Amino acid sequence: MNLADGLRSVEKKENQVVEDLESLLSQILKKEKQEGKNRFDKLRGVHKLQKSIVRQNMHNAMSPISAISGYLELINLSLSHEPDVKQIEHYRKQIEAGIGQVNKILEQLMEIYSDESDSISEESEVLLDVDLNWVVQEVCKQMHCSGPNIGFNFSAQPLYVRTDLFMTKLIIFNLISYVAKCSSGKDSIELKTSKSNNMAVFSLEFEASEKKVNELTEIMSMEMNEGSKGINSFNEGILTSRTLVQQIDGFLDFQSEKDEKPTISLHIPFSCSEN
Prior knowledge:
The structure is a single chain. This protein is 59% helix and 14% strand. It contains six helices and seven strands, in the order ααβαββαββααββ. It has helices at residues 3-79, 85-114, 132-142, 165-182, 210-221, 233-245; strands spanning 128-131, 150-153, 160-163, 189-196, 199-205, 251-255, 263-269. A five-stranded mixed sheet has the order 2-4-5-7-6. The longest helix is centred in the N-terminal third of the chain and has 77 residues, at 3-79. The termini are far apart.
């Protein structure tokens, strides 16, 4: 091989190296761009769900706040005449009960947001291997889920999922809030965890009117990109949760069969440690 051929061979190899580096760099930039978009979509979805939950709780707080205002007015009226001590004491107890309800709502919000992961502000996504049973139980504690009408049926075995902990808690919080809103105070609600088709499942079986069932069926059948204009905060929360759970390769499912209670379920893939 003469000198000219040798130089051409070296030049060819250099060009190939440059092309390979450019191709690799392009792939890295493309991957980072997609990861950045996914991260932005997730943060936007989490923020949207947070706003829905805040609006829901503000709505829930309006009733006891209105009642407190009414009882304060009744006390003022009673004091302007000959005071009825027993009646005023009754009003005082009602006001205390209303304040307790408002405090409970505020505590729920503070508890759920106190667990907000630092990963929300991190540049890269942070996923944890956690037992879905534990996650549901933690949210139930924060929401003070108790009473004769609420049943629990948790899996005897751990259900490990790899997920964003704060986002998953938000979704579960929203699902429980939605079901509680659909049901009356006397209706039964059952919270259940199980496994199905290599996925961990959190299900809520509840009682609801035909109107609510039809409404939820419509929300669950909506396209993700349809938007939420004109939808109330409770339904918007379900729609946003459907979008968010896709970020962890999961999905929401709704079943409503004749003569059976409707069930809404959260499905999340098992982590590698579970498999």
